[in-house]
Amino acid sequence: MNKRALLAQLMTSRKNVKYNDFVTLIESFSFIRTRGKGSHEIFKQEGIAETVNIQNRNGEAKPYQIEQFLSLVEKYNLKLGDN
Predict the structure, then answer these.
(1) What is the pLDDT of residues 14-59, one digit of tens each?
(2) What are the beta bridge partners of residue 60?
(3) Full-model pTM
(4) CB 23 within 8 Å of CB 14
(5) Listed residue (69, 75, 71, 58) closest to 27, CA to CA
């Protein structure tokens, strides 16, 4: 899915989001996967103390974790990149 279209979709609904699409979106905001063992994946960005912690639930992202990520985007005024 197009990253900008996915971001627009997440602004209105956080349900039924494919996990892999969400990971791609997180990485497009320059977050780097630092851990991926077990049921959780952790993403960090230099200069931001908070981490993004997500789980794959039957191929979908958890809505509350999407909400937490979007809160970080807003709090730090992060911009969507092309990576």
Answers:
(1) 889 999 999 999 999 999 999 867 788 999 999 999 999 999 999 9
(2) 18, 57
(3) 0.90
(4) no
(5) 69
Token pair 């209105």 is found at 12
CA distances from 29 to 38, 58, 62, 67, 75 (A): 24, 24, 19, 15, 13
Residues 6+ apart with CB under 8 A from 44: 31, 32, 34, 51, 52
**CB atoms inside a 10 Å sphere around CB 23:** 19
User: Is there a contact between 69 and 30 (Cβ–Cβ < 8 Å)?
Assistant: no
Distance CA 50, CA 42 (A): 10
Give the amino acid at 80: L
The domain 3-75 is placed in CATH, from the list 3.30.920, 3.30.390, 1.10.3860, 1.10.599, at: 3.30.920
Structure tokens given for 44: 């960090």
The domain ranges of the chain are 3-75
